[in-house]
Amino acid sequence: MSIAANCTMMFTQRTLSTSSILILSLLVLLGSMSSTWAEEAEPASHKNSRVLITGANRGLGLEMAKQFVAKGYQVIGTARKPEQAVALKQTGATVMKLDVTSEADIAALAKALEGEKIDILINNAGYFGPKLMTENPENLAKLTRQEMELCYRVNTLGPLFVTQALLPNLKLAEDAKVVHISTRASILSKGTSGTAYGYRVSKTALNMVTRTMSGDQAMKGILVVAIAPGHNKTHMGTERGKLDPQQSMAQVIDLIENLTRKHHGGLWYYDGSRLPW
Ligand SMILES: NC(=O)c1ccc[n+]([C@@H]2O[C@H](COP(=O)([O-])OP(=O)(O)OC[C@H]3O[C@@H](n4cnc5c(N)ncnc54)[C@H](OP(=O)(O)O)[C@@H]3O)[C@@H](O)[C@H]2O)c1
Fold first, then answer.
1. Ligand 1 centre from 237 Cα, in Å?
2. In this predicted structure, what is the pLDDT of residue 131?
3. Nearest CA to ligand 1 atom 26
4. How far is the CA of 68 from the centre of ligand 1 (A)?
5. One domain for residues 159 and 249
6. Which of 22, 57, 184, 192 could form a disulfide with 85 if both were Cys (CB 3.0 to 4.6 A apart)?
7. What is the pLDDT of residue 157?
8. Per-residue pLDDT for 151 more than 90?
9. Boundary residue ending a domain (9, 27, 42)
10. In terms of residue numbers, what domain contains 25?
11. Whole-prediction pTM value?
């Protein structure tokens, strides 16, 4: 081999090894940058998302607030008595006052949030009514007009008018979602027990609010669903609840984060399965 050819080979080898090193270093650098980006990407994507949860001072609302905060969302939790909502404050959520039966409270909340976008509205506040749970022929006789109306005002009119008032905020978000927390006890085609008139009637009406909103031009571009959270251990669900809110609410949040057009206007169980009406 001529000296010239030898030199060319050595030069090529050196060039190759130098460029290999350069390429390798570049790949390593890109790899480390992309893993940094990947690590930062998740919280950053939630950082600008705002969730508002009604009745967040205890039970399922409090658990959702905790988990949304931990995921990096900006969370507004409402409570009837904000000064007593210590556990909610401790989650890092912003606490705002709201009794969902109060027109003045709803108007004040909307005013305080004017111009602020809301990505996810969770109408969670709920009222069960007197514990006429067990089958008892006296249930009907014990039922009062006042209790029936209160169930309707909290469970049906609450979500309807809170959504109405916060619609301008939802419109400011790119893919807003409205979630009405319903219950399996609302299902017309299931269960015929003679109990909990107010709760069942008002939640079935809430399902119709969900259906109606899902076809309303005013709600265009906003996903609306009803979710039944399952029987949980809370004040309402009592110790007999089969589910631990920490686990079931993680599933509910996963469902909310992954809502698509196929979910729009439907009633969904906490585990993501579809429920009948
Ligand atoms: N737990 C279950 O097994 C179960 C099953 C099916 C559906 N759900 C639904 O899940 C939601 C949460 O239930 P939960 O188990 O967490 O019940 P919970 O422990 O009894 O909590 C109910 C929440 O709603 C609030 N609330 C009641 N009336 C209100 C009003 N007029 N204005 C504003 N907030 C009001 C309560 O606030 P205060 O503390 O001020 O009273 C509390 O924060 C409800 O919609 C319920 O119907 C629960």
1. 9
2. 64
3. 125
4. 18
5. yes
6. 57
7. 98
8. yes
9. 42
10. 1-42
11. 0.86
